[in-house]
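Reminder: ligand-aware prediction takes two inputs, not one.
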Amino acid sequence: MNLNSIYAAFQGEANPFGIGEPVIFVRLAGCPIRCYWKTLGVLCDTPEALSKKSGETLKPAEIAHRAHQVAEEAGGIKLICLSGGDPLWWPELEVNDLLSNLLWKRFSVCVETSGVIDPSPYYRFNNTYFIMDWKLKSAGIKGNKMESIAPTLRENDYIKFVVYDWDDYQEMFNIVQDLKTSAKSVAGVYWNGTIDSFELFNQLKKDKLLGKIAMNFQVHKLAYPDYELIQPKMI
Ligand code: SF4
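Here is what comes back for the chain with iron/sulfur cluster:
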């Protein structure tokens, strides 16, 4: 497996432990898709992690060991955010191995994933929760599997919508009308999109969707010391 980066941080987005919870970010390398590239001409905010060859090649047990070290150095963090890229793009055997090692070290794990890879092979792991992106039109992605994945998700899993414009909003509106899932749905706006959070909230309220969708924010970006560094990259 290739590890792009590992560091202590706090949860900035919706997850079952709450925003602000201290966490070790374990960012694996590689993502099978390129959100926003075809539609907006930009890459997402983790372009450094999109190539599977980026970072350092390590065994899953070595990654878990390193996570434990970073967690202890930070005072005993108990939560892992396994992110990427898309961490589920690695072979199932290796993801199994990584999750087993992290859980053996008594971490809980939130897995942030793209929505194009089925997480159900990993439901057997305790204390492991999935935050699934449901890519809307502006992301320009084909092969989104969320229609079939959503009904399998559990009550502490999350479906995340990122709304760039009113076309995205309309698509999300249509999706949630018939959505059958136990997971919680959250929606946030794209950084520099054409809708702001107040407009999104007011429209959800007007459409009587606040019983179905909660708001999501990227609070970590507000706390980031150099905001320019985390802007989507033009290439
Ligand atoms: S799924 Fe995530 S990591 Fe992959 S391109 Fe999209 S935003 Fe970036």
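The pocket of iron/sulfur cluster is lined by residues 31, 33-35, 44, 46, 84-86, 114, 133 (CB under 6 Å). Residues 227-235 have pLDDT under 50 and may be disordered. We will return to this case in the review session.
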